[in-house]
Specification:
By secondary structure, the chain is α/β, with parallel strands linked by helices. It contains 27 helices and 27 strands. The longest helix is centred in the first third of the chain and has 38 residues.
């Protein structure tokens, strides 16, 4: 080894290593071993890293991956199934089958059985139900996985259509059964129909299906060598001869019809695959996108759309107009897509809830409601957007958060209850929507283990879930300032983003101009007059003309123009919803107080100062919906209200400058004011209006004609003059003389006092 590196200089040179000097052999040898050790360490490290990666890959391979969300189609089944309901459902399902892409996995078809308004849900016709059940159980529906969803009770022969589906999902408290509740006699045809469907699908045993139909057929659950079985009482003896029964439990007593709650159907008998109280839980159970569980009232055809705008502060009269317009356009099937364009800071919680409840009451199978928020839907206006089936927003639009009014503490409980009712009606989670109007609510994002599904809950709604422990807590969701369109889409609140209404139309394939329920010309005029630009201009002109009017005697065109501008300003703000009778009364009282100060009690200052404050306050309050700002939005709106006052002050200031410098020279306006006098006229006017000169009385004697206390009158020759004594009281007819004259003030002293 030593010879390899050269043990002397000559061998080092001979071997071609001229840089190795004598005595450096051990240093070179150490360097060699270091290189070898580093190489071995690298190989070992790469080996360990590779083993670790292989281990992680193996663990990831055996761990369950979140299931990909499948697509689902939802079709409501109105109860009772009578008339042409079955044919209508068949046509809709055929349409879905025709649109299915070839070569794809089985899609999910959800049939939601729910009572129709004003009709007995248990009065379904057997023939119609049997026809629909045979269609659902046929090979034609092989590309679809049929799921019967029962959010409410299903009784009568509609049970037969439920049995024809491959899977049953039911609400925990919903009841299912009593198929023969409306029948006085059960014939063989009915029994054969239920037996046929139950044997074909085997969603529930045949004995249970017949136990739901015929109250004379008791049902037993028996434990055999092959496992548990459900048999009719009439079949029990025959079964005992064929096999050994270890235990027996009565499920349906003779004389009763089989009826099961959702919990019993799932937990006790396992006839239902899942429990789901709403569509959100249904989507979680089926592992489908929640958006896919929405009804399509267009039935695959083109949308017939109508647009309604909800703009400006929410108030009773505007909501009345919106409700009336929607009712006229949607009655009789005139439209199946309602576009509610919301651009409002809120204003009235009561009226917002009224419109929200009206939108919820619309039948989703006949008309789909879509809210578009291009600007803002703050505070209670967010409830209107919530009540629609879908929400589309512009990227920078604002949903919820502080608005034109603060919801009082006494209203919070009622608002929470109303929001939950709306969310239940739309079958969606209510925590996030409640937080948009109640910022005190704490929200977190939760992820369901195994599926990767994410939802947003407050602690109260999380506790109401059937498996709260299956949800892992994530980050906090802050809604105190509302949600932008971008955040709303990310959180699943908004379905799409659209920069403007034209892009909104493209999303829903709406061609051409859709019918728009617009306000009359009067509404449009009010909106323009109430805009900050026009309102500021009105106040500018009003104060400008008022100062001109007050600067000249009599009444003129300027006074009429000022009055007209003030009237238009308060009228437009009153109809726009920001001004009320309080603002009008304040302005009127302020004007009256100023007039009292000028003409009745001049110089007091109380009426003038107080009247001015009332006028300013009325102008500020007329441009906003609140009195004292209490939240971020209201503080942001306050400068706009102050600008209205600034516009009026600017008009007054401009009028004073123009009157002084230019108005007298204007060709058309110079008659409104007197021209400035020339130098000679000014001198004469000065002499005429100068004070009385009493210097000639200095040192003269006279006699008092009134007591001086200390002021009074005294006669000097033929003149009677107002005089003031030197401080002492002086009687009448006392001789006095003038000791001092200051302007028109003549000071006298008694001659007796002098002596």
């Amino acid at each position: 080894m030593f010879q390899l590196f050269g043990t002397n200089r000559s061998r080092g040179l001979a071997c071609g290593y001229p840089g190795i000097r004598e005595g450096e052999e051990f240093r070179v040898l150490g360097l060699f071993f270091c290189l070898v050790a580093c190489s071995l360490a690298g190989l070992i490290g790469r080996g360990l890293a590779g083993a670790e990666e292989s281990k992680k890959a193996a663990v990831a391979a055996v761990q369950p991956k979140p299931a990909e969300l499948a697509r689902a189609y939802l079709i409501p089944v109105p109860l009772p199934i009578a008339g042409s309901v079955d044919n209508h459902l068949k046509r809709r399902i055929d349409q879905i089958l025709s649109e299915l892409p070839r070569g794809t996995a089985r899609q999910i078809l959800v049939l939601e059985f729910r009572p129709a308004a004003g009709k007995p849900a248990d009065a379904s016709e057997f023939e119609r139900c049997l026809s629909l059940a045979r269609y659902l159980a046929s090979e034609r529906l092989a590309p679809l996985r049929t799921v019967a969803y029962l959010p409410a009770a299903v009784k009568g022969h509609a049970v037969l259509a439920v049995l024809a589906c491959e899977e049953i999902v039911i609400a925990p408290d919903a009841m299912f059964g009593a198929a023969g509740i409306k029948e006085t006699h059960i014939d063989a045809t009915m029994q054969q129909g239920y037996t046929e469907i139950a044997e074909r699908r085997r969603t529930v045993p045949v004995a249970i299906a017949l136990g739901m139909l015929d109250k004379s057929a008791g049902v037993q659950k028996v434990q055999t060598l092959d496992g548990p079985r459900y048999v009719l009482n009439s079949e029990l003896d025959d079964l005992k001869r064929k096999t050994t029964i270890s235990s027996m439990e009565s499920v349906v007593q003779p004389g009763d019809m089989a009826v099961f709650s959702g919990r019993d159907l799932r937990l006790k008998h396992s006839f239902a695959s899942h429990l789901a109280a709403n569509r959100s839980e249904l989507a979680s159970a089926l592992q489908v996108a929640p958006q896919s569980l929405e009804e399509d009232p267009s039935l695959g055809s083109k949308w017939t759309a109508v647009r309604v705008d909800v703009s400006g502060p929410i108030q009773a009269k505007s909501i009345n107009w919106v409700e009336r317009s929607i009712r006229q356009r949607t009655s009789g099937g005139n439209a199946n897509l309602l576009c509610v364009v919301v651009d409002s800071p809120g204003g009235s919680v009561t009226d917002s809830l009224r419109l929200a409840n009206f939108l919820v009451s619309l039948d989703p199978s006949e008309v789909r409601t879509v809210a578009y928020v291009g600007g803002e839907a703050r505070a209670d206006a967010a409830l209107i957007a919530m009540a629609c089936d879908q929400l589309v927003m512009a990227d920078e639009a604002v949903l919820g958060g502080p608005g034109a009014v603060d919801i009082a503490e006494g209203q919070i409980v009622e608002v929470r209850r109303a929001v939950r009712a709306i969310a239940d009606a739309k079958q969606r989670d209510w925590s996030l929507w409640t937080a948009l109007v109640d910022p005190s609510l704490t929200l977190n994002r939760f992820t369901r283990e195994g599926t990767g599904q994410t939802r947003i809950f407050c602690p109260e709604e999380l506790a109401l879930q059937k498996d709260p422990e299956a949800w892992s807590r994530g980050d906090t969701v802050d809604t105190r300032r509302g949600l932008t369109g971008h955040d709303a889409e990310r959180l699943g609140v908004a379905r799409f983003l659209a920069a403007d209404f034209g892009e909104f139309q493209q999303l829903y394939h709406l061609e051409g101009d859709i019918e728009s329920v617009r306000p009359t010309w009067a509404h449009v005029l009010v909106e323009h007059l109430a805009s900050p630009q026009i309102a500021g201009l009105l106040l500018f002109v009003a104060w400008f003309a008022l100062l001109i009017e007050l600067s000249h005697p009599g009444l003129s065109l300027a006074g009429f123009l000022s009055m007209l501008c003030f009237v238009v300003y308060f009228w437009s703000q009153f109809l726009h919803g920001t001004a009320g009778w309080l603002e009008i009364l304040l302005f009127t009282a302020g004007v009256v107080s100023v007039l009292v100060e000028v003409f009745v009690v001049p110089g007091t200052g109380v009426f003038g100062f107080g009247g001015g404050l009332m006028i300013v306050a009325s102008i500020i309050l007329a441009s906003q919906t609140f009195i004292i700002p209490r939240n971020v939005y209201q503080f942001e709106q306050l400068p706009g209200s102050l600008m209205m006052v600034a516009a009026g002050g600017a008009g007054a200031f401009a009028s004073m400058i123009l009157m002084r410098r230019y108005l007298a020279e204007a060709p058309l306006l110079k008659r409104l004011m007197l021209p400035a006098p020339d130098e000679e006229a000014q001198e004469k006017l000065s002499r005429r209006e100068s004070l009385v000169d009493y210097e000639y009385l200095l040192g003269k004697r006279g006699r008092t004609v009134t007591p001086l206390v200390p002021a009074g009158k005294a006669r000097f020759g033929d003149d009677i003059v107002d005089v003031i004594s030197d401080g002492a009281l002086t009687e009448r007819s006392v001789d006095v003389y003038v000791v001092k004259v200051l302007g028109n003030h003549v000071y006298v002293q008694s001659i007796e006092d002098q002596t």
